[in-house]
Amino acid sequence: MLAAGRKKGGVKLFRLILIALIFMAITLVYVWFRIGITKIDYRIAEEMHCRDSLLEENRKLKVEIATLKSPRRIESIARTKLGMRYPERDQVIFLK
User: Fold this and answer.
1) How do residues 56-91 score in pLDDT, each as one tens digit?
2) Which residue in 79, 81, 92, 93 has the most C-beta neighbors within 10 A?
3) Are 78 and 84 in contact (CB under 8 A)?
């Protein structure tokens, strides 16, 4: 009778340990997935910051292009640095 009681107690202890191990395994898998999700979230935030920086740089470059293409700037360079001037009336030849 005592052996049967030990056997029942051993089976109960085995089940309890098995349930605890399954619970721990499930918990570890859950934590592993959460860590993966957190890493992905950080990567997304980093990429969004990089995207914002690139958009800002793109905006600045567009402003710089517009400034460099300005007719006033081009005319000023032509007059001061290149010594150019508008042609006189008799220097212009019209073609038909």
Assistant:
1) 999 999 999 999 999 999 999 999 999 999 888 888
2) 79
3) yes
Q: What is the DSSP letter of 91?
A: G
- Tallying the residues shown for the chain, one arrives at 96
The token pair at 81 is 């640095």
Report how far Cα 64 is from the mean position of its chain's Cα atoms: 25
Q: 50 or 9: which carries more pLDDT confidence? A: 50
The contacts of residue 67 (CB under 8 Å, 6+ apart) are: 73
SS3 24: helix
What 3 state SS string does 33-58 have? HHHHHHHHHHHHHHHHHHHHHHHHHH
The letter for the amino acid at 47 is: E
CB 85 within 8 A of CB 79: yes
Residue type at position 55: L
pLDDT at 15 over 60: yes
